[in-house]
Amino acid sequence: xxxxxxxxxxxxxxxxxxxxxxxxxxxxxxxxxxxxxxxxxxxxxxxxxxxxxxxxxxxxxxxxxxxxxxxxxxxxxxxxxxxxxxxxxxxxxxxxxxxxxxxxxxxxxxxxxxxxxxxxxxxxxxxxxxxxxxxxxxxxxxxxxxxxxxxxxxxxxxxxxxxxxxxxxxxxxxxxxxxxxxxxxxxxxxxxxxxxxxxxxxxxxxxxxxxxxxxxxxxxxxxxxxxxxxxxxxxxxxxxxxxxxxxxxx
Length: 250
Fold this sequence. Notes:
Layout: E1 2-7, E2 11-18, E3 21-29, H1 34-41, E4 51-56, H2 60-74, E5 79-80, E6 86-87, E7 90-91, H3 102-112, E8 119-124, E9 127-134, E10 137-145, H4 147-157, H5 168-173, H6 181-208, E11 213-217, H7 221-224, E12 233-234, H8 238-248
């Protein structure tokens, strides 16, 4: 059995693969004790673990702790995947390929390994990233602060008190202008992100003359989705699917 772990800035996702049978286990937020989080998400009847693959954008010290946990638990040394100049027939668009986040690269592979359709991939996590692929070539993308970072910046740098009970559903359904501070922050940041994406996709389609398939992933994506003009396919385990594709099929 192969275990696949996506280690983000605030959450981790996990999947397993045994004889081409893929299973997405789930997503958990982690705090200071990532080992406990891994223990909780791995409380299942695993067959003999052959390999553990990790896609991480976390800090080196956290990667070291995850490595130690995996070695102790499964007696295997994890393989940390990295961005490559070309994988699964897809060419990386960055001049310095290894500066493209490995999570973005795996999401690109998960989206485009079996498709020649022009594709835009949006990952709405701690940061919001956008990547464009046409004819198996990655043309680059954008990185902007995610919803949480935008709000956190306001709370950190102004006297606005931090929100306690944010109702994102009501924010998505409210009118254009808010009538209280919490709604103003939630609605304003949501409008900024969605307006950015709507404008960007419109400009890319105009500039390239192509119509894009749009794929969304990340913890905040379904919050943003109702505000987007284009239809999106939502794939919560997109990065994990890219990891499996890279290891088992390419």
